[in-house]
Amino acid sequence: MLTDDELALLEAIRQTGSLSRAAAQLGKAPSTVSYAARQLEQRFDALLFDRRRYRLQLTPAGQLLTEEAARLAQDVSRVTQRVRQVANGWEDRLWIVTDELLEFESLMPVMHAFDALQSGVALRVTHEVLAGTWEALRDGRADLVIGATNEPPSIPHLGWFELGVVEWVFAVSPRHPLAAIQAPLTREEIARHRAVVVADSARTTAGRAYGMLSGQPTLAVPSMHAKTLAQRDGLGVGWLPRHRVASLLTRGELVEKCTTDPREPNLLYVGWRSDADGEGRALQWWLEQLRQSRLAKHLVQGVDAFA
């Protein structure tokens, strides 16, 4: 590993092309710089400086040493910063998993506020669907889950609280056959048409399905956004979060239909796991923010991506 002085020497020679100018830049005597350069070459048993030309240049070996040494110095600096960060109670990284019901945009104000702390904690945000959200927490693929549906499962050291409620609307394209029916839709009428569903992302447990009837044909899509697009284009029918399709309903691109069996609102949860040392400062900060009623309402109501 090169010292800071040796790194500075190599960079000064690369920039100035002269031992004397490098010495002036470093505030050292030319003889001192010349001696340090020879010591480097002896240490690595390699010709690092091309002295044959008027302008001193690094050889390919010298250039490689300069680049690699600078990269290693940056790595050491980053590791030092991360060690201090963790020693001060901040996590190295916080992995946040949100259910597909929540739009990523709804988290952005919280992320800006977190960035202002300059904690150094790296954030990773991913999506899961239905049972996959709780499963990610159980299997260590999440430090914090936001918007998980259904009651919290049995997970060791699980902490949780309620985030809010999502209301649903049964919506179809105005071109869909169900749009012309005036009376509330029965289960039998709905079952004759394809349902659009977001596929449960659970990997090791049986996935769950909502909003579809026994024997009903289905179209499984990867996200709530895709489900909305599919229903808007008449590829199927189903329940959608009211807040996310409000503008489509207003513009008539989706039609809200009453049903004889309305869907109950979904209660959403925040969940996390506490290890033996308790929660890190980043997780504590996020939990405090998420407990605020105004923020919880904002997250649950989310963003109308079609506005």
Q: Structural class per helix/strand content?
A: alpha/beta
CATH C-level name of the largest domain: Alpha Beta
How many strands? Answer: 12
| Share of helix, binned | 25-40%
Question: What's the quaternary structure here?
Answer: single chain
The main sheet comes to: 5 strands, mixed
What is the global morphology? elongated
Proportion of residues in extended strands: 15-25%
CATH topology of the largest domain, which one? D-Maltodextrin-Binding Protein, domain 2
Task: Write structural notes for this entry.
The structure is a single chain. This protein has 11 helices and 12 strands. It is elongated, with a radius of gyration of 30 Å. The protein starts with a helix and ends in a 6-residue tail after the last helix. The strands form 4 sheets. A 5-stranded mixed beta sheet has the order 4-3-5-12-6. It has a 3-stranded antiparallel beta sheet with strand order 10-7-11, with helices on one face. Helix content is 39%, strand content 20%. The mean pLDDT is 87. It is α/β, with parallel strands linked by helices and 307 residues long. The protein has helices at residues 4-16, 19-26, 30-44, 60-87, 108-115, 131-138, 187-191, 224-232, 246-251, 281-291, 293-301, and strands spanning 49-50, 57-58, 93-99, 122-128, 144-149, 158-166, 168-172, 195-198, 218-221, 238-241, 255-256, 266-273. The chain folds into 3 domains: 4-87, Winged helix-like DNA-binding domain superfamily/Winged helix DNA-binding domain (Arc Repressor Mutant, subunit A, Orthogonal Bundle), CATH 1.10.10.10; 93-165 and 267-301, 3-Layer(aba) Sandwich (D-Maltodextrin-Binding Protein, domain 2), CATH 3.40.190; 168-264, D-Maltodextrin-Binding Protein, domain 2, CATH 3.40.190.290.
